[in-house]
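Team,

Forwarding the record for the chain on the shared tracking sheet. I've put the sequence and predicted structure together so nobody has to dig through attachments.
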Amino acid sequence: MAKKNALGRGLGALIEGVEKEVIENKVEVNREIPISSIEANPFQPRSNFDEAALEELSVSIKELGIVQPLTVREVAAGRYQLIAGERRLRAAKMAGIESVPAFVRTADDRDMLELALVENIQREDLDAVEIAISFQRLMEECDLTQEQLSDRVGKRRSTVANYLRLLKLPAEIQLGIRERVITMGHARTLVSIEDPKVQMEVYYKIRDNQLSVRQAEELVRQIQSGLTKDTARKERKVQLNKDYEQLSEHLRGIFQSKVNVRVNEAGNGRITIPFDTREDMERILEIFDRL
């Protein structure tokens, strides 16, 4: 069986592959680098970092040090650019650490983006929209198909597709996902609704009534069932009217006047023959007498 791309197994697989890269002179292992010499990753896809979580990590680093080295690339003599490990770097600064262990990796801009995105995707604290945005960026900026992307990040193609569909939801719902107002399960339910207005109505009901995912799914089933019945009823009504249009034309020919035929689903209906003057009415009545 072909060996799976290391990116598909996450950042851990990249680190595990460092030993091989050392042999090929691509990476220096566990080098101690001054924090002041490391600049931020311009391709970092994350913009929000939990300050409380950073504080906890900072305390841990102060007591135990950095267990997993950062990954950087050298951009000039003695100057480095962060590839992966933004949280560890921020927490180390908070802890007052002056230098950090790091792997120095050879990487171009595309590698930088891909490594940063993959590291973030593998994190457990990412919200679903952040993951979806990272997937979208990987596809657009690294020119990947959904199938190639699923191989890169080690997730099923259907999972990747479900995340990407979240980006089609209204902005307010996406914000609700990011703020943990609703879960990924709720979001998948909302995605199944085509009408944005109905999506918002269901979202408000989920939020205001704190519905579970199962309750939300049942609500959507009821709404979609109602919409389906309403659509079918309208279609049947239109078809009935079309069916009786031929009768209308036939009666117009007899009475030489506009004749309207309307029938409901139960088969009840009305034939209307309007007239403009008394003489016109008498003409129509004479036709009835002849018939």
